Amino acid sequence: MVRCGNDCVLPRPFSIHQVNDNGDIALFFAVWENGKGTKWLSQLKAGDKIDLFGPLGNGYTIHPASHKLLLVDGGVGIAPLYFLAQKALKQGYSVTLLHGASTATNLYPDHLLPAGLEPIPVTEDGTAGKRGMVTDLLPDFAPRADQVFACGPAAMYDEMRKQRTLKSKPVQVSLEVRMGCGLGACYGCSIRTRSGLKQVCKDGPVFALDDLLGDKPDFI
Fold first, then answer.
1. Residue 99, φ and ψ in degrees, nearest 5
2. Which one of 14, 151, 158, 204 is CB 3.0 to 4.6 Å from 200, fit for a cystine?
C-alpha cells in the first residue's frame, strides 16, 4: 500500500513487480486518467521518497509436483506475474507467458522480461503477435501446463471460467479491486466466495478461480 501525496486520503494498492538480490523492490503501474494517486507517483523523480507498507495478503503458490507453468496477463496484469516468473525460473520451472494488450505500444517490452521466459504476445488490434484476446490462446497452451496463474480484469476471469481446457487445471488469479486500508479492517474489498466472505487485501489478492462466485467476482 503506497501513500500518494496529500491529496489522496487513502493509500493505493500495488503489486510487487520485481525484487533484486539486495531486496530492493520495483512497482509497475499505469497512470490512469483522472487517477490522483498514479499521476502523483508518475511525477516523482529519482531520489524522492515515498511512504509504503507491506507486503500484505498472499501470493501465488506453485505446487511441488508442477513443472510447466502458464502465466496469463491482461493489461497491467504483468505487474505481479513478472515477480512470479522471476522466482519460478530461478527454481527451474518452465514458464510461458500469454501477454495481452490492446495494441503493440501497450505490451511490456520483451527485452525487459526475465531471461528464460517464453513470451507469447497477443494484441486486440493485431499490431503485434497474435490478434485477439489473450484468452483465445488458452486452448492451445493450457493443456500443456501443470498450473495456470493469471492477473487481469474481471471480464478476463469470466471468460477463463468458460474454457473447457481449464476445468481440470488448478488456476490461481489475482484480483484487482479498490482497497481502503489494506489490512482487513475496513472490509471495503470484501467479496463472496464458495468458502464464504473473504477480504481481497487480507485473504487474497490471489484466489483459486473456481472459488469465485458468479459470472465475475461478486463484490459487496
1. -110, 105
2. 204
pLDDT band for 214, please (50, 70, 90 cuts): low
Paired sense of beta strands 171-174 and 147-151, if any:
parallel
pLDDT in tens, 125-141: 999 999 999 999 999 99
CATH architecture of 68-219: 3-Layer(aba) Sandwich (3.40)
Cα–Cα distance between 190 and 197 in angstroms, integer? 7
C-alpha to C-alpha distance for 59 and 88, rounded to whole angstroms: 13
Q: C-alpha dihedral over 127, 129, 132, 135, to 10 degrees?
A: -150
Per-residue cell: 130? 497474435
Residue 79 has, within 13 A of its CA and on its CB side, a CA count of 20
C-alpha cell at 178: 479498490
Segment 118-124 long-range contacts (CB within 8 Å, at least 24 positions apart): 118/94, 120/96, 122/98, 124/100
191, 218 Cβ separation under 8 angstroms? yes
Q: Which contacts qualify for 58-63: CB closer than 8 Å, 24 or more apart?
A: 58/203, 58/204, 58/205, 58/206, 59/84, 59/206, 60/84, 60/149, 60/172, 60/174, 60/206, 61/172, 61/206, 62/88, 62/91, 62/93, 62/147, 63/146, 63/147, 63/170
CATH 3.40.50.80 maps onto the chain at: 68-219
d(CA 187, CA 199): 7
Q: What is the mean pLDDT of residues 54-80?
A: 93
Strands 16-19 and 25-27: antiparallel
